[in-house]
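Hey,
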Amino acid sequence: MSTPWRATVLGSQVAELLRRPGRFAATGLSLLIAAFVVFGTVMAQQIITATVVEKFHGTPEAVSVVVTPGDDGEDIGEDRLREIRRTPSVTEAVGRIDGGSPLDGSAVERYLELSADPGSGALAKVRLLEGTYPAGPGRLAVNTRAAREYGLAPGSSLTLLRPESDGDGTRRVTVEVSGIVRGTDTNDARPTGYAPGPQLAELLGVSGYSRIDIRTDTASAGSFGSAGSSASAGSAVSGSASAEPAERIRQAVPGALVRSGNEVRDQEAREAVTEAKDVLELVTVFLTVAVGAAALVATSTFRIVFARRVRQLALLRAIGASPRRLAAALVAEGAVVGLLAGATGVLAAWGCGQLVPPLARRLGHELFAPSGLPLTEAVLTVAGTGLLAVLAVLAPSLSASRVSPLEALRGAAAGEGTASGVGRTLLGLLCAAGAAFLARQQYVGLPRPGDTEYDRFAALTLVVLSGGLAFLALIALGPRLVRPVLSAVAVPLRRTGAAGRLAVAGVGGAPGRAASVSVVVALGVCLVGSTLTCLASLSAYERYRQAVAAPADFSLYARDTTSLDRSLAADLASHPELTDVTAFRTAEVVESTRGATVSDLDLDTVRSGVSLTARTGSLGVLEPAHVVVDADHAHRLGVRAGDRVTLEFEGRPVHLTVAATLPGAGPYGGNFFVTAADLTRMGADAAPTMVTANASQDGAQGRIRAQRAITDTLTGPERGDGRVMAEEPAGPAEGSDDLRTMATTVIMVLGLTVLVAVAGVATTASLTVVERRREFGLLRALGLSGAAVHRMVTVECALYGVLGGILGLALGMPYSWLVVRVAEASAPFSVPAGELAAVFTALVLVTAAAGMVPALRASRTPPTVAVARSE
């Protein structure tokens, strides 16, 4: 009899699945989200890898063999290079040199990177844009960055400062700029000059090369392996024949390291990809939260759906189905739903991954899509989702299978099961306690600013584990949180008429269902909001670092004396080419028996357009007897805004109140910043020790004119023998474009999870409309119009978004703060209020729109349904 019963039970479940697929869409939604998030992260990594590989330009593709110095570290001389060129199968070989030199001829200190390159041919790393490539001594080509910043063009001259061979003094070498080139490697990000190897070696006064790039003929291109290793795969020659050219090269340069070009390119690409993938560390550890939350959300949803089907399950029990068979059928049903949801989530994530690059390009970010579907990761994701579904359905299926056959004689269940029992509350409190314990442990062990030995990845993992426990607590306690939150946000809705009051009552009357939907939305909001907040905080800190690293375009200070001419700032300010001319003083003080620097620099004058931020307090107008403290001293003294500090100047104590603490080091090496009047009262000399200025016009030409104005003003030792440092403009740091690109990818992937959660709102609303037909019919019979019913259901769906947004932000903000502190202890916590408000508003509008179609169905419910027989 077991086989017929098994067929009857399974057949009943299949029939139910086909008859009401909407219910199973609701149960599968959280599983679909889990699969989407997991595979979306895989796609994000694939996109980042493809983007880095596509943009990466290191060793040219034509390079077959790379020779570098061996363990002795000695450069490879010109005679060795000639030996390599005479080796059979070697078509071309060029020597590489990487160096640099300061430039002379201006009061402003400038530096030029120098790189050896043939300038043309398959092994060239540069492309000529204007003029000619150097073909003799005393000539140099510069890249576009150098031409733009230093105002160079073909025919211009440069004077390099080269150390004397005996190491005593410097030698001036004048060269002519013969052409402008565009580089393809990382050197193009800095002002760089290029020349063929022999000319550059003579220019720098070196006798060898740091690397030799070799191109071989086609027959032996793949036959060169690393020293002591076999030939690379794909070689046209094998065995002893393939090893012969490599051995000859090793004989020509004994002791050197000989590697294939493919090996070097692979290593370069791996290093670049590994560095880029670090951006996804936080997203990767978030996967545990997403998967665990999806499991509990699915468990709750399965329990609600099974409770709705209590009469059908009771009928199966009445005709002889055992609890074990019934539970097995429900588990099989859950597995099918899980596999279908996993496949759908994988396909959705893959499709979105294909859409992200073109969308990012429209937003100004260059991304590249991976080729093909990562099959192994896709299969593992689908299988894992099926397993997750089985685990999620176990408890609800065991509970549902024990339903009494007498339930078949009653009407359809109107409730939603024991959504908030004592056991669930205790579990939620236990998870909350665990989350609080882990969060406190990380808070107590936060690193001090500048701590390089702190294991940030391990700490971030524990923070995310704490966040996962907090989210599980939110799931368990969700039904108890819905009504208090709803009562706080629904006050204006109750004043909008019957539709608003009924919507609030409809959501509050089913807290379990509202919690199961809102928590899914909260997951997406939590991830997106946390990511936006962390990025805003770290970006603010990066801007702070850039502003501190380059506080002004030009910094003038005394070379051999302690102060500058008092009239220097006024003279510089008279030049229209200069703006924001600022003079300030520094002095040495003693703080807790340790030396420190105090300055009267007005922090509002630091790098116009890039505002400094405070970690505690405010960097507004600094009052007398107050001080701003850098991060290191604030941490060591254990002070924050409002505390007192004591400095000692020439043996006299000075008591000050902390007005603010900085998130990092202070500008120009300052540790404490006070008002000019306070520094004068301390006894500091009135003459400035540094003068800063900015170019009045943007761009290279504006900076060049400003440099000339400064040079004309510095006329001799009577001005303090001023020395000028030309700072890089405070724009995006090197590699920040890539970070923004990766951040865009992460935000897009996480944002799409919110849209998937919103789809769950539509599914739940559709399920609700089917189950509440009698309620809607009764409302229509009492005189409520179809438009009012439509508004009621739409507002209910919007409330799901409101609840999810509030719960998600309430959970995400504290953990965002902790993540920022762990990732960078000096970073200020910056909340992007505008972006978060936009996300919240868009979420409410989208969830409201998700309920439009179900609301339309509800509005068409006839009043006669109120007196119809229940199913």
